[in-house]
Amino acid sequence: MSGIILNKIHLSELSAAKGDTLESQKFAKEALQFSRETNVSSDILASLQQLSSVEHKNAAKYSKEYIKINDSVQQEERKAKDKSPVSPLKQTKLFKRKTNSRSKTETYCTSF
Q1: Is the pLDDT of residue 16 over 80?
Q2: What is the pLDDT of residues 79-111, one digit of tens each?
Q3: How far is residue 72's CA from residue 41's CA, in Å, rounded to a whole number?
Q4: CA distance 109 to 96
Q5: What's the pLDDT score for residue 92?
Q6: Which residues contact 16 (CB under 8 A, 6 or more apart)?
Q7: How far, in Å, CA of 23 to CA of 76, rounded?
């Protein structure tokens, strides 16, 4: 998380702990604004989470946006994981595991 956004979130948390709701909301909104400018998903998610905890009036709106972005991030991570090639070491282990289940006496050598 970038320094400015993290600081704004911490200032929002500190203001909330002191009971200054307006100041807390101001810092959380600034964090969200900066995170949208940088377009870093994790920063946006952290800012939305903080906003939903300090601005109760719009908490549902921020929570819905959080869920939407988080779901998109998870889908992209799954796609990337599915597309990533299996390393040669993993291929060898998978091959050995498959052959070991067929016959305990067979030995195979693989090289990549």
Answers
A1: yes
A2: 887 776 655 555 555 555 555 544 444 444 444
A3: 10
A4: 9
A5: 58
A6: 24, 53, 54
A7: 35
b/e sequence 19-39, b meaning 16+ C-beta within 10 Å: eeeebbbbbbbbbbebbeeee
Name the pTM for this structure. 0.70
CB 49 within 8 A of CB 69: no
99: left (phi over 0), alpha (psi -120 to 50) or beta: alpha
Q: What is the Cα–Cα distance from 5 to 90, expressed in whole angstroms?
A: 39
Would you say 43 and 50 are in contact if contact means Cβ atoms under 8 Å apart?
no
Tokens (6 digits) for 78: 């799954």
Given a contact cutoff of 8 angstroms between Cβ atoms, the answer to whether 25 and 2 are in contact is no
Which residue type is seen at 83? K
Q: Per this entry, what is the length of the chain?
A: 112
pLDDT, tens digit, 9 for 90 and up, residues 32-48: 999 999 999 999 999 99
